[in-house]
Design goal:
The chain is an alpha/beta fold. Helices cover 45% and strands 12% of the residues. It is built from 15 helices and 8 strands. It has an 8-stranded parallel barrel with strand order 1-2-3-4-5-6-7-8, surrounded by 6 helices. Helix 2 packs parallel to helix 3, helix 6 packs parallel to helix 7 and helix 8 runs parallel beside helix 9. The protein starts with 6 loop residues before the first strand and ends with a helix. Bound molecules: 3-methyl-2-oxobutanoic acid and zinc ion. The site of 3-methyl-2-oxobutanoic acid has 9 residues, from strand 5 and strand 6.
Amino acid sequence: MDKNRVVIFDTTLRDGEQSPGATMTHEEKLEIAEMLDEMGVDIIEAGFPIASEGDFRAVSEIAQRSKNSRICGLARANLTDIDRCAEAIKHAELNRIHTFIGTSPLHRAIPNLTMDEMADKIHETVTHARNLTDNVQWSPMDATRTEWDYLCRVIEIAIKAGATTINIPDTVGYTAPVESADLIKRLIETVPGADEVIFATHCHNDLGMATANALAAVAGGARQIECTINGLGERAGNTALEEVVMAMKTRNDIMPYTTGIDTTKIMAISRRVSTVSGFVVQPNKAIVGKNAFAHESGIHQDGMLKNPENFEIMRPEDVGLSGTSLPLGKHSGRAALRDKLEQLGFEVGDNQLKDIFVRFKDLADRKKEVFDDDIITLMRTDDAND
Ligand code: KIV
Ligand code: ZN
C-alpha cells in the first residue's frame, strides 16, 4: 500500500454507541454501516459481540451485508469473547478481531494481574485470535499512561503472537499532540517487528485534543486513524472522522496523506448519525455544524460574494452541501440583502434598496434571523406603500 495512505477505522457503532444515551436500533445500525461502507471507510468496528445478543446480531448482519469495508468486532482478552467475536464476523469478506486489555498501572489493577501474568494473557489471547482470522488488531488500553518499557514489551509480544495492527489508545484523552507524535515514532523505532504491522491511533477528546492528537500520531508514523462520525463516543467523544479527513485533504501541503473517503458523503451521514443517536451537532462544530459554512456579518458576506476564498478554506460542495449560506441578520450588509432579493426574484434600484435596508435592519434588530418569507413580506409592504 502507498506509504502515505491512512486507513480510516470508524467506531461510531462501537465506541460511539457506548456514549450514554446514544443507543441505536438494529435497523439504524445497519443503515449507518451501509452509509459508512458507501463513503469509503476502510474498517467498520460494528460492535462488541459478547456485550449483548443485539450487538452480536448487528455485527453478524453488518458482516454479511458489507460490500467494501472490512468488518471488525471488539473482544476483551479472554477466549470466550474472542470466540464470540469470530463467530459474529465470520461471514464478512474482509474481517478483523480487535482484542484489548488495559496495560497502565491503574488498568492492570482492575483484573489484578501482575505484569508477567498480563504478558502471558496477551500472548495467549492474540495467538488464539490469530488462529481464527488472519487479521488481528491488538490494543493496550490506556497506552498513553502505560510505563514505556512495559508498553514496548507487550507490543512486541502481541506482534510475535500474530497481531497485524497495533492500536495505541489514548483512552482518557490525556496526551498532547507533541507526545502523541513522539510516542508512535519511538515505538516504531524501538519495538522489534514494528515495521511489519500498522500502527493505529485511537484518541478521546477529554481535553479537546483528539483531532490534533490523531493527526500528530500520523505525523509520527501511524497509518490508521480510529474515529467516529460527529466525534460521538464515551465522555467527550472520539476523534471526529470528518475533521481528520478534511484536515488532511485541505492541508495536504503539510499533511501529505490520502484516505479512501468520498468527502461529499460527509454531511448526509453526519445528519443521519445525529438523528439516530439523538446527539445534536453543535452549530459551530467544525465541518458539519450548521454554521461551518455560514456567514452573517456584512464584511464577511460582502467578501464571500466577491470571492468565497476570502472566508472559506474548504468548498461546501466537498462535504456534500449545496453551497455557502449567507443568513440575514442584524450584522448583514447591503450586498447580502441585494443578493438575497435577486435570488427571490426582486430587481431593486439603489434608492429602493436603501429604503428596504432600513426596514430590514429594524426587523433584524427584533429577530435573530431574517428568513426568505420575512424579506418577501417586506417587499410586499413596500409595494403596497408605493
Ligand atoms: O478507548 C479505548 O481504549 C478503547 C479500546 C477498546 C481500544 O476504546
Ligand atoms: Zn475508545
